[in-house]
Amino acid sequence: MIIILLGLIGAGKGTQAKKLVESMGFLHISTGDMFREAVKNKTAIGLEVEDCMSRGDLVPDELTIKMLLERINRDDAQGHLLLDGFPRTISQCEALELALLTKNLQIDFAVNLFVEETILLERISKRAKIENRQDDQVDIAKQRLDNQRKSLKEVASFYSKTNKFIEVDGFGSVDAVHGRVMQEISL
Ligand code: AMP
Q: Is 7's C-beta closer than 6 angstroms to any atom of ligand 1?
């Protein structure tokens, strides 16, 4: 099964991804985590994306797609995947479809965790204090929200066309939200 986990910043994607990995054994691939790791380790990609990320902007498609495709072409990525934070643009959606097609795979569901934006901003400012994430500072987070709202709409409409888009109420306890997600993806 291949699931794309969607949601605006602070919607609980990371937390729900962990729960899904525990209960379903997915390989979790988060482009945000990969970029943060690259920045931390000062790799060539990290140095290239650092400014972009700290402004809250999306990293250019070419670089993001290349990194993601390299990841899903590794031996451990054999079709039981949870993609988190990718795709975020139509080009990314198309590149992913094509790459999966050549592996005879396809996306099962694109699950959006929906949470009201006032609640999102509260969660983000809390996380900024606890984790000291520069891109969670409130001004930057607002910028990320603006970018993400637009890109989420594009990605949602892409997967709606093939009836793969599912919206789940992301408000409530971690377990309650996880239960809703599981219900939606159970075949
Ligand atoms: P995230 O943790 O998924 O919100 O990602 C953190 C940051 O990494 C984003 O604000 C972007 O700068 C960058 N990023 C992660 N995934 C993507 C993507 N699919 N396309 C472009 N930029 C991305």
A: no
